[in-house]
Amino acid sequence: MTRTMTEHESELAPGEQAPAGVVAMATTDQEQLSELGASLRTALDGPYAEGRAAGRAELNPEDVLRDDGQSMAEARAWTFAKLQLLTDRGLANAGFPIDGKPADTAAAVIAFETLAHGDLSLTIKSGVQFGLWGGAVQNLGTAYHLTEWLPKIVSLELPGCFAMTEVGHGSDVQNLETTVSWDRSSKEFVIDSPRPTATKTYIGNAAVDGRMAAVFGQLVVSGTNHGIHVVMVPLRDADNNPLPGVNLGDNGHKGGLLGIDNGTISFDQVRVPREYLLNRYGGVSEDGEYVSAIASDNARFFTMLGTLVRGRVCVGASAGITARKALSIATRYAEQRRQFPAPGSEKGVLLMDYLSHQRKLLPAIATSYALGFAHNESVEMLVRVQEAEVRDDLRSRELEARAAALKVMHSRFANDTVQMCREACGGAGFISENGLTTLRRDVDVFATFEGDNTVLEQLVTKAQLLEYRQMWGDLDMLGTVQQAASMVGRTVMERSTGRVVIERLVSAAKRRTGEVPVRDRGWHAWMFEEREQHVVEGLANRMRAARKTRGQDAFDAYNALQDHMVYAARVHTERVVLDAFIVGVESCEDEATHAVLNRLCDLYALSRLEADRGWFLEHNRMSASRSKRVVRTVNELCSKLRPDALALIEGLGIPEKLLDSQMLRTD
Amino acid sequence: MTRTMTEHESELAPGEQAPAGVVAMATTDQEQLSELGASLRTALDGPYAEGRAAGRAELNPEDVLRDDGQSMAEARAWTFAKLQLLTDRGLANAGFPIDGKPADTAAAVIAFETLAHGDLSLTIKSGVQFGLWGGAVQNLGTAYHLTEWLPKIVSLELPGCFAMTEVGHGSDVQNLETTVSWDRSSKEFVIDSPRPTATKTYIGNAAVDGRMAAVFGQLVVSGTNHGIHVVMVPLRDADNNPLPGVNLGDNGHKGGLLGIDNGTISFDQVRVPREYLLNRYGGVSEDGEYVSAIASDNARFFTMLGTLVRGRVCVGASAGITARKALSIATRYAEQRRQFPAPGSEKGVLLMDYLSHQRKLLPAIATSYALGFAHNESVEMLVRVQEAEVRDDLRSRELEARAAALKVMHSRFANDTVQMCREACGGAGFISENGLTTLRRDVDVFATFEGDNTVLEQLVTKAQLLEYRQMWGDLDMLGTVQQAASMVGRTVMERSTGRVVIERLVSAAKRRTGEVPVRDRGWHAWMFEEREQHVVEGLANRMRAARKTRGQDAFDAYNALQDHMVYAARVHTERVVLDAFIVGVESCEDEATHAVLNRLCDLYALSRLEADRGWFLEHNRMSASRSKRVVRTVNELCSKLRPDALALIEGLGIPEKLLDSQMLRTD
Questions:
Q1: CA B574/CA B616 separation, integer angstroms
Q2: What is the pLDDT of residues A228-269, one digit of tens each?
Q3: Which of B110, B129, B154 is the last residue of a domain?
Q4: Based on the structure, what is the number of domains in chain B?
Q5: Are B125 and B327 in contact (CB under 8 A)?
Q6: Distance between CA atoms of A107 and A130, rounded to whole angstroms?
Q7: CA nearest neighbour of B218 among B189, B248, B256
Q8: What is the Cα–Cα distance from A495 to A394, expressed in whole angstroms?
Q9: CATH value at residue A76
Q10: So what's the pLDDT on residue A485?
Q11: Cα distance between residue B41 and residue A325, in whole Å
Q12: In Å, how far are A256, A414, A449, B662 from B429, measured between CA atoms?
């Protein structure tokens, strides 16, 4: 996929000379990139380079950049209007199986992440309509829903809500209180919110625009609760007035995403026809019998939720794009802003020349690349799972764990990075017209929506433990635990593909006589693996003991493991991301680009080892002198990468036209 | 100072019974606190308990809490109106030497921190008017300025600006470009902005309200530049129109502090009378001669800037108050919010009962206490320095370093903590009416205003190095360096007061045979000292080598030390804060309160040791097993402190009436 520009492809007129190292990219927006920047971008975009380049070129700043000074009402109106415009142009609603086309999962993901290059309210508004509302109908509905309803959703003729969260139950979806009861006599479903805590809240599109909602509730048929199901419920009439029995509220002003009209919904015995239940995994027959191909309520619940995994993949990715945008702004500013006198110069020292500044920006840039390669893998996993002829439970579970892991790391990284970039631009970073404060406000909620990060981390670890419990049987046999731990976190796909490269590198590092160089890639992979295995093995042993307790004691015993569980998720995620980066570097064929990616991968691996060196020292995986060398090497890598800072930013793929930063336009 | 309530003091009517452990506080707002909470609050308020309690009682929520949904124009108007109201009540403008009263430094600081319990725009607007503008006139002016101008500033009749920062020079104050030139013929000063980069920017009160400004510029007399001086320059006439030669701009929408009208100012040959120069440290005589008691331009510059240190003390403290407010909201929410089923209960598990939640909130609460005690020390240092008959250069420098160190730690802590609290409240935390998002937006800029944190950290370390270079002479003698390092960071005041307690504890820990318990206070103090000494000694040695280089090599050599310098500042600050906490615990006489403070101090010390255990392992200050025990002990301390969570929050001193969080009012 490596793109090398020939003179023939240049956009320059005959006789014109491009500045050294700068070639015109063959994108429709004529973006000028350095050769290295263009090549890095192609490598990072990976299998989706073409679609991403096209998507970026299609975005017009005036359509996707919002003025942060807008009031909430203005922001909401702007957001809906722009979503309609982008929908009409086909930029927001890609990939749906309508008009005889098959579903195109990758196209849907790429469309969503491309929108994240612009305003995040617009992105999330699109996500509510097409990802959540449209996604629920697409993934949980059957032919009737896809034919009758999906086209209106895809055209935005029918704006809708994804009504899952309730006042009393945020993370605990299984215990939602809304009821969906089958009325045998009228052959209808009755939707009801029995208590105030059953009120749906923080629901996008609920306060103003939503005409219908995919409502999550307990399905009760003839007195039997079959667990959580999803039903389409009309909310407002054609004049946007609430329908009888539907109570709608407004969550009002928020910390960010002002363009999203989050609101509350509660139901007072609202009736809908039998067909409105999204019944792919469970429904009620015409003669009033509950029917499902999945016998266990629990299995059905997780299967249904699992089909909605795309939202989590998309949310993580768009947080990642936001971090890239902040890094692009802060790095470009650091390349123009000077402060304090420079030796032998009147101009002062560029911020980017200060080690402390390099230490802030460059490891974050390296992590951005790492997460980008890992996200590409997720999209490939998602496509394989969602476009498979037959559902593969194991691969689905792997995908869900991966999506949760990356959503956590992406959103944590984005929050920290945008804040760091804001500060790295000093007072200018705090002025809205310079583009960072809106990113900061909008990306904040990514840490808790689409799954609270702390809850998701425990989900990731449970998936790890569950997997090898199923693979290796009884956890109580210590030998098995140890053996199992060596396989932990290896998904089916990993075992079959990229693992070969990594195992070769690790084996080579282990075989070396004498000390392994601190930049040896195999050593990095080895250390990340060792840590994960040890942490999960230790956790499994502690779990074994906790399983013998009951009642409050059991709660206390598991509760005492919570920080261990969260840590296990983190080290697992860092390992998965490193592996993806390694495979990404290895598949880059251009020599110069490969060398830079290699250095970036070193910086990702070593800055993570540095941050957690306490663990490696405690567990005798690093000596004190080696640990100090890791710290020094991070500094050295910063110096080595510094001359390429701008190219690295170009590689992250945010077009300059979308940076929306006044301070970069004035020098 | 320990307050123990007697039944006699209770506000309850005879026959009424207070709930167990709850007594009515004798504050004017009748706040109901638990006995432990009241006692903790008194201990933490320390020498300023009375003034702080009175200040909190005086604040009315309707005067100091702002609606986050306000537009920028509304926010600015609200802020000015409320500042006038508080000024009229004497709540914002305390401590000035007018009407025959002497300056009361502590009163000024307490007034400022008390305002931070409310809206931060209002707090900073007060800071701009009274701390910066009034402070410049008070501290840099002479009798004429104090008599003629200060009363109008203190009444808010004359709103003004502190015009230091320029477009081209944020942190680099010494190289500002604005000129203040003496015109020998007219006997006036001419203020000029020679280039666009000389434009003053981010200046509070400049966009709308400022009528006059304290302008920082290079004072040029008869062709000689005497360095930075400050001159009062009228900006607007009585109808608020800009005066001739004064160009005013608006920085517009910002990431937070929307109530502050930050703007730009540039001057085109604006003339002011000779008396307008704030000439305490340097001025021009009637016959046009430059006069100063301080011969060196450099020494004069640092002396003048040093007198403005109160602003930095106040900014740090108000960031600390903001963190306390966020912790109060998040902890109270965690005590009412339940999620996921609890064993043997229908109600679900309280968030506060989860270890992961305790791990988020309790170490932050402990750090809040630590910083509170450290801030009390700073105020005492400030009072001693600023109210001394004769200026004491050494103590002034110590105070400046301390103020910089605490401002950095306070503002970093506040940013991280408010964000953590927002996330700990899930979706509810993101809804503005719940009170966290406005704190998040407003406290953001504290990391870069009143000194960029990264620049300040280097200032702290330079002060440390300078101090012992002056005390011990030539840095090039290694023996001296090592000896000096053992004294590093000990200020005059430290050496004379609280050090006795700490040295006794450290000596006892060192004398112990066998392993020192992990909760031994002397061991904590010892470890923090060891780390600081080692880091500064290492830095001094590297500095010695760097001093032999010149030009670009010198820049490169010092630049390579930047992360070491920043780290030295951090470990110094953590040590200073621990010392203050230890002294605070020791001076608490109430047994039960002492026990809780002691535990909190353990948690502060051990959570910091945990976070930086890589260093202690690398440098053989902790064994691997001890390091693991530190981690376990942090968990144990969280469990032990968990039952006191609400009392700990009460101790932080934010009255419930000011929490402004809708979710706490509904259960």
A1: 14
A2: 999 999 999 999 999 999 999 999 999 999 999 999 999 999
A3: B154
A4: 4
A5: no
A6: 12
A7: B189
A8: 13
A9: 1.10.540.10
A10: 45
A11: 44
A12: 11, 18, 11, 10
Flag whether residue A419 sits within 8 Å of chain B, measured between CB atoms: yes
Distance, in Å, from the CA atom of A250 to the CA atom of A253, rounded to the nearest integer, reads 9
Judge if A442 and A335 occupy the same domain. Answer: yes
Question: Which residue is closest to A629 within chain B, CA to CA?
Answer: B618
Q: Are residues A273 and A374 in the same domain?
A: no
pLDDT tens, residue by residue, B234-256: 999 999 999 999 999 999 999 99
| Residue A344 CB coordination number (10 Å) | 9
Structural domain for A187, as ranges? 160-304
> At A119, phi and psi to the nearest 5?
-75, 135
In whole angstroms, give the CA distance from residue B568 to residue B562. 10
Amino acid at B502: I
In terms of DSSP H, where are the helices of B516-623?
521-546, 551-559, 562-586, 591-611, 613-618
Tens of pLDDT, residue by residue over A360-386, are 999 999 999 999 999 999 999 999 999
Q: What is the token pair recorded at B176?
A: 């500002």
Same domain? For B417 and B504 the reply is: no
B positions 2-61 inside 8 Å of A (CB): none
| CB contact residues (below 8 A), chain B span 553-582, against chain A | 554-555, 559-560, 562-563, 566
Contacts of A551 in chain B (CB under 8 A): 343-344
Nearest CA in chain B to A619: B624
Burial of B559 (0-12, 13-18, 19+ CB in 10 A): middle
Residue A100 is classified by DSSP as T
B241 and B184 in a single domain? The answer is yes
Which among A407, A404, A429, A406 is positioned nearest to A418, based on CA atoms? Answer: A429
Listed in sequence order, the residues at least 6 apart from B148 whose beta carbon sits closer than 8 Å to its beta carbon are none
- A24 within domain boundaries: no
Beta-ladder partners of B191: B180, B270
How many residues are given for chain A?
A: 667
CA nearest A516: which of A611, A622, A607? A622
Query: Do A344 and B552 lie within an 8 Å CB cutoff?
Result: yes
Distance CA B17, CA B13 (A): 8
Residue B16 pLDDT > 80? no
Residues B322, B242: one domain? no
CB contact under 8 A, B251 and A431: yes
Whether residue B564 is found in the same domain as residue B538? yes
A137, A214 Cβ separation under 8 angstroms: yes
Q: SS3 breakdown of chain A: % helix, strand, coil, rounded to 5?
A: 60, 10, 30
Rg value, chain B, Cα: 26
Domain C-terminal end among A127, A154, A181: A154
pTM recorded for the entire structure: 0.93
- pLDDT per position as a tens digit, A45-60: 999 999 999 999 999 9
Q: How many Å apart are CA B451 and CA B173, to the nearest integer?
A: 10
Q: Which of B659, B590, B612, B662 is closest to B2 using CA atoms?
A: B590
Closest CA to B450 of B551, B314, B341: B314
The DSSP code sequence of A466-506 is HHHHHHH--TT-HHHHHHHHTTTT--HHHHHTTHHHHHHHH
Q: Please give the angle made by the CA atoms of A618, A621 and A625, to the nearest 5 degrees.
A: 85
Decide if B412 contacts B336 (C-beta within 8 A).
no
Nearest alpha carbon to residue A92 among A77, A72, A107: A107
From chain A residues 345-364, the ones with a CB under 8 A of any chain B CB are 348-349, 353-356, 359
Q: Please spell the DSSP secondary structure of A615-649, one letter per residue.
A: HHHHTTSS-HHHHHHHHHHHHHHHHHHGGGHHHHH
Closest chain B residue to the Cα of A450, Cα to Cα: B427
Query: What is the rounded CA–CA span in Å between residue A184 and residue A193?
Result: 20
